[in-house]
Structure formats: structure tokens, C-alpha cells
Amino acid sequence: MFGLTGGNLAFLSLRLWLGARTLLTGIEKYSATITTQEPLLDATGAPDPSGAMVEIEKKVYGFSHYHPVPESLQTKLGAEPLLPEFLTRPFYFLLGPALILLGIALLLGITTRLSLFATGLLYTMLTAGLILIGQDQGVAWLGIHIALVAMALLLADHTRFALTRS
């Protein structure tokens, strides 16, 4: 079928998974959960006559909700002497956009090898921060991501369905 080999399909699967994972992680940096109060509705859909209100939580997205890392981690990273603010501030600023751009590049197959390598570098930088604050579970998860990036790079000769062949 279309001259596809196991290697082509393996690489495509890895590229799509890594692209979706990276893109959606970047998009989630712009999410928030907001709580609103709405009238309690009766069985007919009319507001309860007692005026009772219920709290409704909604997930929303927007530039104003940007949070590169959870506040608890940001506090721990801020206390780490090997991570001075002049390094972390630009990293935090660029993290969300970088994840989104790399995810799109991987999904579309734009300079795939370079996109994979850049994704691996980004995950390595995230790993370094987690190592310094003792978040071993996060380090392990990122280690799996690095292994998947490395496998994808080994399979990159099998590129199909990409905008560029490199």
C-alpha cells in the first residue's frame, strides 16, 4: 500500500505521537479552570425558586492564562541556586510557544530531524530542572520521551507524508 514499509509506519507513528504530545502540552500551558456561579435549575429547566446557585467549573484557554510550569514547581525551581532567574525567565517565556511550534513541525513533517532534535533538547532542559528539584517521577517520564525521540531519529530515514524530507 503506497510503498509503505514497517519502518515507514513505525516512524510515522512515533512522529505523530510525539507531535501531538508536544503540541497539546504547549496548548495546555494556556489553559485554566474557572469557577462560575449559575442558578440551580429544576426538572423543567427553570431556575429554582429558592434562588439557589451552583458552582460550575469550566476549562478555558487564553493567552492571559499562560503558566509555563505549575506554581509549586516554579517556586521550587526559583529556590534552586543552579537555576538563576536570568535563565529561567526566558525559558518560561518561550516554553509554551516552543512546544506548540515543535509539535506542529513534527505533525506536518517540517524539517523532521531538526524538529525531533530540538524537541529532545527541550525535554532534556526540562529534565535538568526536575533533577535539580528532586522530581524523580517527572524525570522518568521525560526519559521515556527522550527514548521515543531517539527512536524516531533512528527511524527518520523512513520519512513519508512530510512537508520536507530532511
What does this molecule look like?
With 166 residues, the protein is mainly alpha-helical. It has helices at residues 6-28, 71-78, 85-108, 112-132, 136-154; strands spanning 31-39, 53-61. The chain has a two-stranded antiparallel ribbon with strand order 1-2. Helix 3 (85-108) runs antiparallel to helix 4 and helix 4 packs antiparallel against helix 5 (136-154). It starts with 5 loop residues before the first helix and ends in a 12-residue tail after the last helix.
Concise structural overview:
The protein is mainly alpha-helical and 166 residues long.
Tertiary shape? flat
Strand order of the largest sheet: 1-2
How many angstroms does the end-to-end distance come to? 23 Å
Give the helix tally. 5
Tell me about the largest β-sheet: 2 strands, antiparallel
Number of strands: 2
The proportion of residues in beta strands is: 5-15%
**Helix-strand string:** HEEHHHH
Roughly what percent helix?
A: 55-70%
| Low-pLDDT regions | none
Mean pLDDT: 91
Q: Pairing-aware structural class of the strands and helices?
A: mainly alpha
Radius of gyration using CA atoms only: 21 Å
